[in-house]
Design a protein that fits this description.
By secondary structure, this protein is α/β, with parallel strands linked by helices. The N and C termini lie far apart (47 Å). Helix 4 links the parallel strand 3 and strand 4. Helix content is 36%, strand content 14%. Strands 2-8-7-6-5-3-4 form a seven-stranded mixed β-sheet, sandwiched between helices. Helix 1 runs antiparallel to helix 7, helix 3 packs across helix 6 and helix 8 runs parallel beside helix 10. The chain has two domains: 114 residues, Aspartate Aminotransferase, domain 1; 217 residues, Type I PLP-dependent aspartate aminotransferase-like (Major domain) (Aspartate Aminotransferase, domain 2, 3-Layer(aba) Sandwich), CATH 3.40.640.10. It has ten helices and 13 strands.
Length: 354
């Protein structure tokens, strides 16, 4: 780092995104992207919007906000569109965390939460998962801080029910609870209906996973309108034109093609269950994932070594070199052909290790 870098950030450890190597053609099962292209309507809409890139995008994101609100059964004032769901999570750390309101999240969860806490210089508390990697909801009662829950959780894929989330909300009347639903469309249940009952709930979602727009960078938050007003204050104080015109158009095209998204989600769920069953028959241990990935380990294989061996054979998965998940790998669910290629490679590796 340079000698000019601010002292307040010198100890910051940035988030590490999934690798995107270019040296060869990989079967890419490491970053939870959709294996399917965006909706044709989204592609056409984005291409048309490109003709107007000399003009600023709509800072209110009005048309897409209306479409998202209608889809969720919410009012427009309860929805905020952002540059990926990471942006609204970042806003939440800025708006609802400080020295007297620490961040509270699981010790094994989305790695950006800790980075956001460090970046905003707010204290935080990490709560251990159970041995089976599930969340014990009682650990979040009277949290004395702003709660961040990835649901389904990452990288485990384990989901809490809305009833369990509601118990956390009931026992935190004076704390904000942020529910990050990046993977909810693959078998989880959304907590969005609870925003009418609880003014301390913020739900975030993304277009990156189920809606095939990871490269478009589009997310949103849903909450009681006063919370959305708070977040808008930060948006208009940092980047009013936070979502570009092509992404807004692609997002609207996606929302207008809900059948395409639903079909892709069904296929991912089918492929997840198919692959999970095959892995278990091969001796792998997996969590009960409700996301578009599988969290798996084999008692006879070192997790890090397996990740490296698969990479050498042209298949990328995600390995986290930290206890207690060091033996596990997170496997994005791809097409049936991609999953069969993975299964064949794993079978060969097991035979070689025998």
């Amino acid at each position: 780092m340079s000698r000019f870098f601010s002292e307040k950030y010198r100890a910051l450890t940035p988030y590490t995104p999934g690798e995107q190597p270019k040296e060869m053609q990989y079967i890419k099962l490491n970053t939870n992207e959709s294996p399917f292209p965006p909706s044709p309507r989204a592609v056409l809409a984005a291409a048309e919007a490109a003709k107007g890139l000399n003009l600023y995008s709509d800072p209110t994101c009005a048309r897409l906000t209306r479409a998202v609100a209608e889809h969720l059964g919410a009012f427009e004032e309860e929805v905020l569109l952002t540059n990926g769901s990471d942006e609204i999570l970042g806003f939440a750390f800025m708006a609802f965390c400080d020295e007297t309101h620490p961040a509270v999240f699981a010790d094994i969860t989305y790695g950006f939460y800790e980075v956001f806490a460090e970046l905003n210089r707010v204290p935080y508390r990490k709560i251990p998962l159970r041995e089976d990697f599930s969340i014990r909801i009682e650990d979040y009662f009277d949290a004395k801080g702003t709660v961040f829950l990835a649901n389904p959780n990452a990288p485990t894929g384990i989901a809490l029910s809305p009833a369990e989330i509601e118990q956390i909300l009931l026992r935190n009347p004076d704390n904000i609870v942020v529910v990050d639903e990046a993977y909810v469309d693959f078998g989880g249940e959304s907590c969005v209906p609870l925003i009418r009952k609880y003014d301390n709930l913020l739900v975030t979602q993304t277009f990156s996973k189920s809606r095939s727009l990871a490269g478009g960078r589009l997310g949103f938050g849903v909450a009681f309108r006063a919370l959305i007003s708070d977040l808008n204050t930060l948006k208009y104080s940092t980047n009013p034109y936070n979502v570009n015109s092509m992404t807004l158009a692609a997002g609207l095209g996606t929302m207008e093609d809900g059948d395409y998204t639903a079909k892709n989600c069904r296929t991912v769920i089918e492929n997840r269950e198919y692959t999970t069953a095959k892995l278990r028959r091969m001796g792998f241990v997996t969590t009960d994932s409700k996301a578009n990935f599988i969290f798996a380990m084999h008692p006879c294989l070192d997790g890090g070594r397996l990740y490296r061996t698969l990479k050498e054979r042209g298949i990328l998965v995600r390995h986290f070199d930290k206890d207690p998940i060091r033996q596990y790998n997170r496997i994005t669910v791809g097409t049936r052909e991609q999953m069969d290629a993975l299964l064949s490679a794993l079978q060969r590796i097991l035979e070689e290790e025998a």
